Amino acid sequence: MTKAHQLAYNHGTLPQTSEKQSPIWVIFAGLLGLLIAAVGIGYRRRA
Hints:
This protein is an all-alpha fold. The protein has 2 helices and no strands. It starts with a helix and ends with a helix.
């Protein structure tokens, strides 16, 4: 997962390499963030 995050950050900081794929990475990163947040909230509520 760390490599995927690094790739997403690289694409975000360097949109010149692939402007068409940049929004896809942004959306993917957002979904991953929401999933992580949901899991964190779930664990906090259960604990």
